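Hi P.,

Sorry for the delay on this. The queue was packed all week, but I finally got your sequence through. Input first:
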Amino acid sequence: MTWRNGAAVWLREPFVHFLVAGALVYAVLSGRPPDLGERKIVVGEAVVARLAERWSQTYRRAPNPEELDGLITDYVRDQAYYREALRLGLDKDDEVVMRRMRNKMIALATSEAEAATPSDAQLQALLDKDPARYAPEVRLSFAHVYLGDDTPAGREAAAATLARLRGGASPQGLGQPVPIPASFDSDPASDVAGMFGDGFVGALRSAPPGIWTGPVPSGLGLHLIKVTARTAPAKPQLADVRQALENDWRAQALRTAEQENYRRLLSGYDVVIEQPK
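Then the structure:
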């Protein structure tokens, strides 16, 4: 038998037809020849240890053999789907994928800043730059008379009520009933703002103590107010506000690291922006 006759017989074998057809289908779908390296999923000891560690962190115990087999099976499934998705180009122009990759790049760029520990000198410099940010809150003591909605008529009534109060009249029975206390004793400014609004607190901060003044608007309506005490905040000390200072220092360090990394990264690209006509 000549080699030509042998080849003809070989090509007539069904198994050969199957192999050729399979190769053709793969070539059409993938657009490239098979790469055994890319299509090998290795679940090494380090991978198994990482899967078991994640399980332990979640459930506070080590996985049993059956659970570990399930973790490995899921890992292989993830790898298979992930690699096939990349092969088909499903990651291209996907905003979710791009944002996840961006966040990973930022995490890599800021990992050193995240682990850094500020010195006392750095924290003190931050405190000296803006001591009011870290100072205890002003505490306010005051009485108020509620006058109802903020209307022209209400403001006219407020003038008459204010004159009576300044003339020595008792605030009891004046104004309109409201389901909040008529007086407050050394309440933090933020608590007062939460009830009446920031503008109301601003009026309390600037009003002369011991004198009825107003009318002052709030989210409820109009009030006449009398400040009885304002406790000025003490100068903040490093030991008392260390945690807040460390949080702000680290947040700034992370922003700086990310911005510097982005500038270095962008310097390697030629950015062309074509505006629509």
